[in-house]
Every structure is written in C-alpha cells, then in structure tokens.
Amino acid sequence: MTRTQKDIVREGYDRLSYAYRADDTPDDHEDYSRWIDDLIRHLPRGANVLDIGCGCGVPATRLLARRVNVTGVDFSTTQIRRATQLVPSARFICGDVMDQDFPSGSFDAVVSFYAIIHMPLEDHEPLLSRITAWLRPSGYLLATVGHRAWTGTDDAYLGVPGGKMCWSHADEVTYLKWIAEVGLHVHWTRFIPEGNSGHTLVFAQKEPIDSKGEQSPPAYPEGRADAPSGSAEA
Questions:
Q1: Per the domain annotation, does 219 fall within a domain?
Q2: Assigned domain for 233 exists
Q3: Which helix (H) or strand (E) holds 93?
Q4: Which of 9, 197, 225, 227 is deepest in the core (most CB within 10 A)?
C-alpha cells in the first residue's frame, strides 16, 4: 500500500519524537516564549486557544497552558502520549486537524508552529478557512508558514534511521493572499531564520480588527523581515 504524505509525517514523528524535542526542553528554547508573549497580551483572561500540530507539548503548549485554556491537536500517537504527560493541564486530541469539527467561534486564538509546512499543500488554504470559522470575532492566528515555496523529503530527519519526513509549502506572498481571502487581516509578518533557510511567522486577526494588533513585536536579533532564505525545513 502506498504511503501518503500524512502517513510519512505521522510515522516519522512517532519515530523521532524524542530526537526532535526532549522532555526537559526549557521554556526559552528558540523563540517560543517571545511568540507566546506577543500573542497573550492581546487575549482576554480565560481565553481558549487551539494549538495545531502541538507535538509533545513543549515548550509552546506548556507556555500557553500556564496562562490560557489550551486544546492541542496532533496526529502522532507518540507525540500526544508525551504531551498528556508533559502538559497535564491542557486538553489534547490525537487526530488529523482536517478531520476536526470544532463549533464556530470556539477559540480566541489559534497557533500553529512548524506544523502546517508538513501538511499536503492542497490542505493549507482549506485549513486557513476552517481556522477562520473556529475563531471568535476579533480572534487571532499566530502561525509559521513557508517563506519560499518548497517541497522535499528527508529519509533520516535529525539523523534518525527510518525517520523519514516530508515538507510542502507555498511562499509568503501566497499565504498572505490566502489568509486575506479567508477573511483574516494580517497585522505583521516576521522572517524566522533556520540555517540557510527560514519560515514566515504571521500574526493575523478576524474582524472586528483591534488596532493594537497593528503594533509590530519587538525586533528579534536573529533575523529581519527581509532576510534571505532557501528551502525551509523544520
């Protein structure tokens, strides 16, 4: 039986979960804490947040769960098993996000870090449409997407034998077009370097728009919005 891209990504993260993220990953790993801070300051007390592709829950879901109510979705059974242990205060769903049917207006914000880029490209725009429906009025999206269009595989991602991984994503201009077409207003984008490549972090909002969201986040020393990038892998 031919394995689909989703099969490869699911099985890949089941195999390389611990190589990708250790149980003792600190809160200050990479830039997650700054990204979460940028989001939290816009959310009401007791906010409900959806984390798409939450992985094992550290550090992003854990950071969120300390301040808001979080639902994490991931289709890797190993990742979700670890997440329930590492972030017991959050709610987790093991399944494909494209199979979820949350009621409209369920969440004050949706986050997705380095997950959409693993999904089949044909799912990206439909997912953005679903996210818009799941958001409450004035709800926010904070997500990493492709900076330049790229599709590729790695038969031993992170050096793990048998840990095959797939990526497929459009470029930043295409994502901004899709995001606008589904009814979200982009407040800002930021290039997030990674080796000789990188991704785009995008912060968008559903109407009605809060003018405070237009404020750019603090400048990050590791990159700038116009920094060059090649293929993006995460």
A1: no
A2: no
A3: strand 91-94
A4: 9
How many domains are there within the chain? 1
Phi, psi angle pair for 227, to nearest 5°: -65, 145
Does the structure show a pLDDT above 60 at 37?
yes
pLDDT of residue 210: 81
Tokens of 81: 């098993």
- Provide DSSP, 157-205: GGG-TT--EEEEE--HHHHHHHHHHTTEEEEEEEEEEETTEEEEEEEEE
Please check whether residue 135 is in contact with residue 164, taking contact to mean a CB–CB distance below 8 angstroms: no
Question: Does residue 221 belong to any structural domain of this protein?
Answer: no
For the full predicted model, state whether its pTM sits above 0.70. yes
In a domain, 123, yes or no: yes
> DSSP alpha helices (H): ranges in the chain?
5-20, 32-40, 60-65, 77-86, 124-134, 172-181
Residue pLDDT, tens place only, 176-191: 999 999 999 999 999 9
pLDDT confidence of residue 226: 32
Region of residue 119 (left: phi > 0; alpha: psi -120 to 50; beta: else) = beta
CATH for 23: 3.40.50.150
pLDDT of residue 15: 98
Q: Are 143 and 207 in contact (CB under 8 A)?
A: no
Is residue 70 a contact partner of residue 91, using CB atoms and an 8 Å limit? yes
Map tokens 């090649």 to a residue. Answer: 230
Q: Give CA–CA dist 49/208, Å, rounded.
A: 18
- Write out the two tokens for 216: 């750019």
The residue whose two tokens read 């369920």 is 106
